[in-house]
Fold dihydropyrimidinase.
Amino acid sequence: MDFDTVIINGLIVTASEILPEGLQIGIKDGKIASIGRKLLRSDSSARVIDAAGGYVTPGGIDSHVHIAQDNSPTGDTWETATRSAVAGGTTTVLAFASQKRHEESVLPAVKAYHEKANGQAHCDYGFHLIVSNVTTDILNNELPAVLSSEGITSVKLYMTYEPLKLTDKDLLHVMLACRKLGMTTMIHAENSDMISLVIEGLERNNRTEPFYHAIARPRIAEDEASYRAISLAELVDAPILIVHMSSEKAVQHVRDAQTRLLPIHAETCPHYLFLLSDELRSCHGHDQFHGARNICAPPLRHSISDLEALWRGIANGSFTVWSSDHAPHTYDHPLGKKIGLVNGIPRFSKVPNGVPGLETRLPLLFSQTTACLPSDKARLSLPQFVQLTAANAAKLYGLADRKGAITIGFDADITIWYPQGDPKGQVEIQQKHLHHGVDFTPFEGIKVQNWPRYTILRGEVVWDRDSAGIAGTKGFGQYLKRNKGQIVVGRLGQTAEGMSEGERDFWM
Ligand SMILES: *[C@@H]1O[C@H](CO)[C@@H](O)[C@H](O)[C@H]1NC(C)=O
Ligand SMILES: *[C@@H]1O[C@H](CO)[C@@H](O)[C@H](O)[C@H]1NC(C)=O
Ligand SMILES: *[C@@H]1O[C@H](CO)[C@@H](O)[C@H](O)[C@H]1NC(C)=O
């Protein structure tokens, strides 16, 4: 066979191993057609990409990004967000079509989101659905309809935020519906009333500078809600993923559940592993509000030991996915972060939550692998990197028939890194080099040991750092109709603690 493209001299990493040297990847019609030696015939017209001894990993799947939602009018468009994705080695994003509380149906939100994304994306993309008004019609009719007609196979629910949060009963109703349909339920777990009480107290005492955001959402609020989410899921035997976890105790709850083989998955994000709440105090010249950039929820935590605990969770397999939770808000804009400067007075509780991180997600984690650090310093292996950044998300979200692995027949979505030690790969993260539409990065000044040199989407080079930079075009990214997800951790059918066998049959 003559290939369209052949990648040579790379070290291919899968979710379980690093393949032997000398293997080449032959790409035909956007798919991986062959992995073998000497794929190039002497008369071949294939384009050759020389990985020059660099590692070759599956294109990143960022399964938690917010792009151009109605509640965040500044920051990114679909074009700028997905442009930054490919510049950071990510070839697929999953973003949120969000039902508004007063809406009876979820379908208008899906339609409107398609209209925003259509023809704009540099990478492939799918939608999760945020449900904020749980009705029987949505549970019985609309969820099955979006599953079959749109390939939307995951739902995100909130336990906090007034306009979005659900009661425990509604959380249970959605978990049950999703369980029946084989959809994945994602949960933002923070105790809303705890947070609201603390915010009231802080405001009464005029403690409203950005730093108090971290005081307003203490770890215990996450711990309690995470344990509650797990208990709700256990009651109805439903698989869940708890998004953006930042607290060791909450992760311990997940780990305990996983040990009992419950299908409880956990996600964490770069900002919780690299940044501390001190960042919220940061000033810049005369700008006392500067720290508001780093307001996100859950908030950045206080101590190095918080970060270390999460790194242990990465190392010991408690986390299923590493996502950016990219939530773009321009800092210096009256509808961006600065909406929280009310008549010149900082009010952290009015600042939109979230930090950008789509482009920096892969390099930050890659730098902590054995590819970049001696094995006693490294936080994870390269196969673990592949699991956390691509393979597990593909399984959990119903893309494991085409994405998340370098395997014959799969989409040729591939990230090629610089050879180890190549100075070109050693990058200090700086806003001025990034491709998103936001005016800052929370990771400014952090040095990473490697950066994606090429990003390939369905066989096309869409990022070529040493020459064209962004080499693809907007609109090349396709909407992904997804299959039902697989359970990655644990299994269904466990009897809940204290229940007898078959007891659920009386009521479920
Ligand atoms: C949720 O949808 C129902 C219709 O199914 C509607 O009557 C209700 O007002 C909506 N809820 C809110 C909070 O607007
Ligand atoms: C908070 O600020 C307001 C307005 O400046 C002032 O009237 C009030 O006394 C302050 N409260 C406290 C507890 O400092
Ligand atoms: C794994 O790491 C998490 C997070 O630090 C911790 O709670 C858990 O106890 C660890 N589990 C094992 C088995 O090492």
The chain is about 25% helix and 20% strand. The radius of gyration is 22 Å. The pocket of 2-acetamido-2-deoxy-beta-D-glucopyranose (ligand 1) is lined by residues 101-102, 104, 133, 135 (CB under 6 Å). The longest strand covers residues 90-98.
